[in-house]
Amino acid sequence: MAARRALKAVLVDLSGTLHVEDSAVPGAQEALKRLRSAPVTIRFVTNTTKECKRDLLERLTKLGFDIAENEIFTSLTAARNLLEQKQVRPLLLVDDKALPDFTGIATEDPNAVVVGLAPEHFHYEMMNKAFRLILDGAPLIAIHKARYFKKKNGLALGPGPFVTGLEYATDTKATVVGKPEKTFFLEALRGTSCAPEEAVMIGDDCRDDVGGAQNAGMHGILVRTGKYRPGDEDKINPAPYLTCESFPAQREDASLGCSPFQIIQGCCKQLSWQSFSTGIRNSFHN
Amino acid sequence: MGTPLPGGPRGGLRRGQDGGAKMAAQDGGAKMAAWARGVRGLLLDISGVLYDSGGSGGGVPIAGSAEAVRKIKASGLKLRFCTNETQATREKFVKKLQGLGFDISVAEVTAPAPAACRLLKERGLRPHLLVHDDLVPEFAEIDKTNPNCVVVGDAAENFSYANVNEAFRVLIGLEKPVLISLGRGRYYKETDGLKLDVGAYMKALEYACDVEAEVVGKPAKAFFESALAEMGVPPREAIMIGDDIVSDVGGAQQCGMRAVQVRTGKYRAFGHHRASPTPPGWLLNAVIRPAEDPTRNELLIQLIPNRPCDENHPQVKPDAYVNNLAEAVDVILSQL
């Protein structure tokens, strides 16, 4: 790294990085504990449209992770921040389970539209309601634009197609707030007094986690867990800053790559990315 | 006023960026008169031109339109109704219009469903239908078993998540997904407000399956051509009159016809004054809030987002703007 910058913040993806469905990535709890001994701010960042922070926290605590609610930053948080910034009152087309993340936001007489994954809201009457608001100038905010997702009984439409339909009908563009949007990563750092160049993002999604973070000026570390498939690291340009076996990978696995936590720890000690690169090389040669 | 439009050779009248509606209408009449002289046939859009749909009676006629249709027929001009209406069979639709006082018959209507049926037969396609219940009889003679394409129309209340998802699953399960859309309109006006049209759902399915729909109906060129053929009039001797700047006006012009935009139906008058002092992307909107005592009326001025509107559309420039069908017909007939 050219700039001599200290590492001040670490962003960690949740699903696929700390846990896969209902099991923790083995050793991830311990690794997180060790990471906490380093002088860095930690944020857990995730694209979710269904789970509010409270539910996420409950699930992670059950899995043995030591995490505080205010360390979690989700696409719902990003949407909320945007609503507060714009001082608008949303029509919320989001799952009921996501509503707690919007507590305290005024919703009567709406002048904005927020679309998450909410099949129960995607009926003609509600779509028309959203459409008329947008046509009258209400901003359209999309939690994300996924095309479809897998359900037990087959594929099901995500919010993307409905957002696209509204965009077409009203001749507007939605503001997408989740990963890999640049603003998502920048918002996640808000209040940390940390510049993007001083942050690292660790995740299993090469495009959305690593590519998105690097596009925002951060360093991206790709882990080979979760949705990772061999060759993913070649999908983005510039390539991931580093690719590691897993979040908690140990030094003994150095042949497979080193652990992000070791890197971060080393980096914090040396307080510069430049010496950090040397540190990594050393860890390989040990 | 009436300065040549950037990007188009058509003279046409437009309500200028700097003129009032009334003045523009008069100006429009004069401008239109010149090229309306050689006209032999008229194509009329129905919804938003003849009537506004919706409500308990099925709709409300637009003032002067029934009389205008009678005048056209009495004049000897050829006449055809060119609609993207897909909420009912033509029989049912025409019956409703007759009930509203219009002189119209099924044989005079060009609509997307019959055109789609011809296309399905030609290509051996078996459709999964995402359409209004009342349109289904139009497809009575089409084999719908083991579908190998999806036909989407203005399904209105049938656009539930479950129904849209079912159409999506059929499409995504096909080796080569074929999506046929009955029109691509963005929205239309009913008596209780604007409603999403088939285009929004066509786009949703296109995005979900990464396909491009084949459009049957306006603004497809083939659709206008079949309406012209049925009327027996070449495009340069025909005028299309509609309320949809893209589907009616743009589509007809692509076909070589002249096209007139009415300021009824879904037409939206939002405009942007070129010299507006408002910040980019915004424009000033003035609204009068009436009081009981008119001398106490309040004038509200607000900033509203500017977006492409029907009066200043970035791509389509109508040959003329008129306030309604009656006005268009009066000007055209005065030239005969």
Automatic annotation (TrEMBL), chain A:
<dbReference type="InterPro" id="IPR006357">
    <property type="entry name" value="HAD-SF_hydro_IIA"/>
</dbReference>
<keyword id="KW-0479">Metal-binding</keyword>
<feature type="domain" description="STAS">
    <location>
        <begin position="1"/>
        <end position="83"/>
    </location>
</feature>
<dbReference type="Pfam" id="PF13242">
    <property type="entry name" value="Hydrolase_like"/>
</dbReference>
<keyword id="KW-0175">Coiled coil</keyword>
<dbReference type="GO" id="GO:0016791">
    <property type="term" value="F:phosphatase activity"/>
</dbReference>
<keyword id="KW-0460">Magnesium</keyword>
<dbReference type="InterPro" id="IPR023214">
    <property type="entry name" value="HAD_sf"/>
</dbReference>
<dbReference type="Pfam" id="PF13344">
    <property type="entry name" value="Hydrolase_6"/>
</dbReference>
<dbReference type="InterPro" id="IPR036412">
    <property type="entry name" value="HAD-like_sf"/>
</dbReference>
<comment type="similarity">
    <text>Belongs to the HAD-like hydrolase superfamily.</text>
</comment>
<dbReference type="GO" id="GO:0046872">
    <property type="term" value="F:metal ion binding"/>
</dbReference>
<dbReference type="InterPro" id="IPR002645">
    <property type="entry name" value="STAS_dom"/>
</dbReference>
<dbReference type="GO" id="GO:0005737">
    <property type="term" value="C:cytoplasm"/>
</dbReference>
<protein>
    <recommendedName>
        <fullName>Haloacid dehalogenase-like hydrolase domain-containing protein 2</fullName>
    </recommendedName>
</protein>
<dbReference type="InterPro" id="IPR006355">
    <property type="entry name" value="LHPP/HDHD2"/>
</dbReference>
From TrEMBL, chain B:
<dbReference type="InterPro" id="IPR006357">
    <property type="entry name" value="HAD-SF_hydro_IIA"/>
</dbReference>
<dbReference type="GO" id="GO:0016791">
    <property type="term" value="F:phosphatase activity"/>
</dbReference>
<dbReference type="Pfam" id="PF13344">
    <property type="entry name" value="Hydrolase_6"/>
</dbReference>
<comment type="function">
    <text>Phosphatase that hydrolyzes imidodiphosphate, 3-phosphohistidine and 6-phospholysine. Has broad substrate specificity and can also hydrolyze inorganic diphosphate, but with lower efficiency.</text>
</comment>
<dbReference type="InterPro" id="IPR023214">
    <property type="entry name" value="HAD_sf"/>
</dbReference>
<dbReference type="GO" id="GO:0046872">
    <property type="term" value="F:metal ion binding"/>
</dbReference>
<dbReference type="InterPro" id="IPR036412">
    <property type="entry name" value="HAD-like_sf"/>
</dbReference>
<keyword id="KW-0460">Magnesium</keyword>
<keyword id="KW-0539">Nucleus</keyword>
<keyword id="KW-0479">Metal-binding</keyword>
<dbReference type="GO" id="GO:0004427">
    <property type="term" value="F:inorganic diphosphate phosphatase activity"/>
</dbReference>
<keyword id="KW-0378">Hydrolase</keyword>
<keyword id="KW-0963">Cytoplasm</keyword>
<comment type="similarity">
    <text>Belongs to the HAD-like hydrolase superfamily.</text>
</comment>
<dbReference type="GO" id="GO:0005634">
    <property type="term" value="C:nucleus"/>
</dbReference>
<feature type="region of interest" description="Disordered">
    <location>
        <begin position="1"/>
        <end position="24"/>
    </location>
</feature>
<dbReference type="InterPro" id="IPR006355">
    <property type="entry name" value="LHPP/HDHD2"/>
</dbReference>
<dbReference type="GO" id="GO:0005829">
    <property type="term" value="C:cytosol"/>
</dbReference>
<protein>
    <recommendedName>
        <fullName>Phospholysine phosphohistidine inorganic pyrophosphate phosphatase</fullName>
        <ecNumber>3.6.1.1</ecNumber>
    </recommendedName>
</protein>
<dbReference type="Pfam" id="PF13242">
    <property type="entry name" value="Hydrolase_like"/>
</dbReference>
